Amino acid sequence: MFTHLAEATPADWAAIDRDRAHYDPAGALLSLHDALRGLPTYGYSVNVYDHTLQAASRAARDGASDELVTAALLHDVADELAPMNHGPAAAALLAPWVSAEVRWLLHHHSLFQNVLIARPAQAEEAARAWAAVSGHPAAALTEHFCRSWDAPAFDPGYDPLPVSELAAVVRRVVGPAR
Ligand SMILES: [Fe+2]
């Protein structure tokens, strides 16, 4: 076995490639999501775990595609890891398995969310930031995602789908390591 990467032999790489088959990206993403379960609400009416269950359930109940339900469940999964950059982080995590449109949505969703939540002092800046990117073909879908599934998903009385049902959707979208 090598101690310096440059010394790895073809046999070493063959063994590494065999082990890659055991990677489980869907399981890893769902573990990351499950780790949100115990987080505080940080002043919101529900915590980010319940928020994402609600957003994904709303998308599923509206008949959204599996990709969009997956995006709704995982769009805030990096909230703790990268609070200032959680949209691009979620886009990167799901990039191999979702369309360019859904990647764009994940990357940019907080820009439109800022428009929805802006207080008067920030409204102009939020509108300008969104206007700068909203000519993109995925902008209308992103607005729909935020208005219909993300923004309303702070309701403590909402009854979400079982997480097992949402996890099954993620497993249909997120395939094996590649
Ligand atoms: Fe959200």
Low-confidence stretches: none
Q: What is the number of strand segments?
A: 0
- C-alpha end-to-end distance: 24 Å
Shape: globular
Known CATH architecture: Orthogonal Bundle
Reading the helices and strands in chain order gives HHHHHHHHH
> Describe the biggest sheet?
none
Strand content bin: under 5%
The CATH superfamily label reads Hypothetical protein af1432
How large, in whole angstroms, is the Cα Rg?
A: 18 Å
Total count of domains = 1
Each distinct ligand: fe (ii) ion
Task: Assign the CATH topology.
Answer: Hypothetical protein af1432
* Helix fraction by DSSP (H/I, runs of at least 4): 55-70%
Count of alpha/pi helices: 9
Mean pLDDT: 95
Structural class: mainly alpha
**What is the CATH level 1 assignment?**
Mainly Alpha
Structure explained in plain terms:
The chain has 178 residues and is mainly alpha-helical. The protein has one domain: Orthogonal Bundle (Hypothetical protein af1432). Helix content is 60%, strand content 0%. It contains 9 helices and no strands. The chain has helices at 10-20, 25-34, 48-61, 66-74, 86-94, 100-117, 120-131, 139-150, 163-173. Helix 5 (86-94) runs antiparallel to helix 6 and helix 6 (100-117) packs antiparallel against helix 7. The two termini are 24 Å apart. The structure holds fe (ii) ion. Residues 51, 55, 75-76, 150 line the site of fe (ii) ion (FE2). Fe (ii) ion binds at residues 51, 55, 75-76, 150.
